[in-house]
Amino acid sequence: MTNIISSVVIASASATAKVFVIGGIGYFTACRPKSSPILPSIAMTGISKLNFNLLLLPLIYSTISSSVTPQKLGSLWFILVSALAVISTSYGVATLLGKLPFFRVENKIDFDALRIAVAFPNILALPILIFPTLCEFAVVHDAFYQGDVDGDSSSELEKYKSCVDQSNAMIFIYFFGWNFLFWVIGYSSLVEAGSKRQMSRVESHATITVSDVHNDRSLDVLEQHNSNTAECDRIPSTTDNDIQEALGFASEEETIPKSCIHLFANALLKTVRSPGFIAMVLGFITACIPPLRDAMFEKGGALRFFGSAMESLGSASSSVGTILVAASLVHQSSDDDIEENQNDNKQRNVILPTSCTNIMHTNTRDIENEEVSTRQRISNDVSHLTNEDEQQPSSNRRESLNRRLSSMVRRRSSLALIALRRRKPKIRMHAWFIVSRLLLSPAIICAIVVAMDCGGILSGIPDLAKMVVIVNAGLPGAQLIVITLKSKGLSDSASIVAKVYLPSYLLSAFTIAAWTSVGLLLSIPDENGRSFCGR
After folding, report:
1. CA dist 87 to 92, 120, 181, 186, 425, Å?
2. Three-class SS of residue 121?
3. Predicted model pTM
4. Structure confidence by residue, pLDDT tens digits, 202-260
5. CB 314 within 8 A of CB 66
6. How far is 188 from 194, CA to CA, in rounded Å?
7. What is the pLDDT of residues 66-91, one digit of tens each?
8. Which is nearest to 320 in space by CA: 517, 129, 66?
9. 3-state class of 14 per DSSP?
10. Contact 437, 476 (CB under 8 A)
């Protein structure tokens, strides 16, 4: 028993170390060289699309086609049910834990967004890199091999390939359930948080008014300012389609269902239409036609060139995906995008209103005080300019007022950006997120799996399926949450989530190894072939 435990710990540590070595490379390339990073933020969207459409989809298809058989489909219900259980449990844990005084998150909108981040872990990029390393160890691939009854007749390479293919197939089926629940629960909750943030920003926004000026010249300036405000509000977000593109959905006009039935139907439709689901279905169809499957994935098959091409493309997906996850931790903040938009508007001589430039308004006391002083300065300066330039031509007075107003609005926007950069999550927010996502939720899932296994409910369920569920329950939050927040204009909340993610991802190097070890000990049969419960 001691040998098994030591082998399990070594396998878990090696798998986790591999993930974080690749992640460290991705993090380094996103921030070095500082002047011109190897992986700049402008390239993230394009590389993410390439990874999903050209690398991940072939991996999904080839894995399902070569490893899933009609006989095994009946035992995979546990994976889909587990996806529902993990997400629901994580959401409930985060909600209840957030009610405690020590873990209470003061900002309700941040709490709503972070709850979704707790509920939806990163179950794709990390697991498909962890399990191939685990399967390299004999203690793992021997225990999970489901080929010949007499394991001696199978080579180590066959056992390893069977372990990897089976684990990847279960991960993708789990991802189907995860994807469906994201559109049922996660997306709608984040959209609601986006609406609340928008309402809060509009209500707290102080419109620039100059009550001391009652002449036509100053009113012309204010009318021009209001016109620019309206035009700015009509500028579409550049990331509105990032969520659907990240999951492979076709771009379409956003509709938020009103009833539960519409919400369920909308989520089902989006899931069925996703390229990932289509690749999965095509993989199941291929797996159910043995001659076609053998022609593509058996040595010497007539279509082996196609199957080999799919496998070669898919083999790069896990590493690229992990690099993107690590790099995104550097590029989460949208300050650069906002500053770029400000520079573009300056070049076009557009007066940027507060409602456009101060997208990430933080509602802090410093900003509120600055709003009051700014309005007073604008009023005094406009009145001063009006009296001082009375003898100047009309066009010169209007131009002078225009320049001063534009300069003051940009100054106030700059102060808001500085305040945003200084806004950081508190210790209790980090503690709440880490305990909910990395400790308490996977512990409850492990207890549920053990109870079901000891109660005989999991009879006939592959031991590897239990392992996949436990590992997925202990992963850090999904990057898709930040993409969703950005697409809804919640740059403030997106920045907070990103800042919470960074220490949780660093700490997950230890928690993933720990939960992987626990999962192996709970799922690997002993020398007599009995489970953890002695069944």
Report:
1. 9, 6, 8, 10, 24
2. strand
3. 0.71
4. 555 444 444 444 444 444 444 444 444 444 443 334 344 555 555 544 444 444 445 67
5. no
6. 10
7. 887 766 777 778 898 999 999 999 99
8. 129
9. helix
10. yes
